[in-house]
Amino acid sequence: MSNFKCQISNKNKSSKLLDIGYWVLDIHRHGGEGQALVTLLFFMIMGITITTAAVIVVITNAASASTYQQGADAYYIAESGIDEGLLHLLRNPSFSGTETFTVGDGSVTITIGNNTITATGSASQSSRTIQMQTVYNNN
User: Fold this and answer.
1) How far, in Å, CA of 119 to CA of 98, rounded?
2) Pairwise CA distance, residues 93 & 87, whole Å
């Protein structure tokens, strides 16, 4: 077989011939080798940064929502303790003392005394306290 040679030349740029068997390729030196690699790396870093930021925001929001839910659960458990305290006072207006019991997945501690009911509800790692003043009318 015959040996083919191909050379494309540009008057303003240097050229180099490469002989690779039957084909000879002309490579021009543009001075911008690796520019595509740098651009690719730049966009990859930007993409990774944006993705990481989005993941952090999602994780933070999920944790915040969980904390909010635990606080709401603790509040509702404390409300049920207030209801229990009112029931104690309705049955015995002179009742005074402290009681702890389980409500759902949490617990509540109620303290009754001096016309005041204090209930502290706990759910997971959150707790909420509600205090109520009572007035007894013996009508």
Assistant:
1) 10
2) 10
109 close to 100: Cβ distance less than 8 angstroms: yes
Residues 101, 84: contact at Cβ < 8 Å?
Answer: yes
Taking the C-alpha atoms of residue 120 and residue 79, their distance in angstroms, rounded to an integer, is: 9
CA distances from 56 to 50, 81, 85 (A): 10, 38, 44
Which is nearest to 107 in space by CA: 70, 78, 132, 82? 78
Dump pLDDT digits (tens) for 26-75.
Answer: 555 555 667 888 889 999 999 999 999 999 999 999 888 888 999 999 99
Tokens of 97: 């003392």
DSSP state of 31: S
Round to whole Å and give the CA distance between 43 and 35: 12
User: Using CA atoms, how far apart are residues 33 and 51, in angstroms rounded to an integer?
Assistant: 29
Q: Which helix (H) or strand (E) holds 3?
A: none
Rg of the chain (C-alpha set): 39
